[in-house]
Design brief:
- The protein is of the alpha/beta class and about 170 residues long.
- Helix content is about 35%, strand content about 35%.
- The protein contains 3 helices and 5 strands, in the order αβαββββα.
- A 5-stranded mixed sheet has the order 2-1-3-4-5, covered by helices on one side.
- α2 packs across α3.
- The longest helix has 29 residues.
Length: about 170
């Protein structure tokens, strides 16, 4: 019995490796220092700072000491009613989160122009379980914050530090 479990574990590990699965490591930006700021109290800005704490990129408090700067321009949460019961009670909500940001280098050149991340989650509502549904809503917003943070960091990694401008092919 234990040898079949060991064999199954080896097969599963081999399949995961073959499909390209790897654990997400730390985010490695092509910058040694970065300044993260927001125009309002932003949870996403705090999460970006926290995620970069495990990387080689140092988050600095002064923009003058940074090679690049991320600005969270706006972070907005919203919820909209999707459906009502026959008695006029809310049955479903759509939660929305919008994060607007910009990424510039130390010279002020725009690396990532002002961009938006729009996230949506749907959840059913039951007014007999108000506390549980409030907790579920908070968890869904936290999930969207983590999702937005990951998207921003992946976009920052994908851009090149000093892009090389190539000539158009001659015809």
């Amino acid at each position: 019995m234990s040898s079949s479990r060991a064999f199954a574990a080896v097969v599963l590990t081999s399949l995961l490796g073959a499909c390209g699965f790897t654990l997400r490591g730390s985010y490695e930006l092509p910058y040694n220092t970065i300044h993260v700021t927001s125009r309002s109290n932003s949870v996403v800005a705090g999460l970006v700072r926290r995620d970069l704490a495990d990387s080689k990129t140092k988050v600095v408090g002064n923009a003058k000491d940074a090679e690049a700067a991320l600005t969270i321009i706006e972070e907005r949460r919203d919820r909209q009613i999707l459906s009502l019961s026959g008695a006029g009670r809310v049955r479903e909500y759509e939660l929305r989160m919008k994060v607007t940001y910009q990424f510039v280098d130390a010279k002020g050149q725009v690396i990532i122009p002002t961009s938006e991340i729009l996230l949506k989650r749907t959840f059913s509502y039951d007014d007999t379980r108000v506390i549980a549904k409030q907790q579920e809503e908070a968890m869904l917003f936290q999930d969207m914050e983590r999702d937005a943070t990951g998207q921003i960091l992946r976009r920052m990694i994908a851009v090149k530090k000093d892009p090389v401008v190539r000539d158009a092919p001659h015809r």
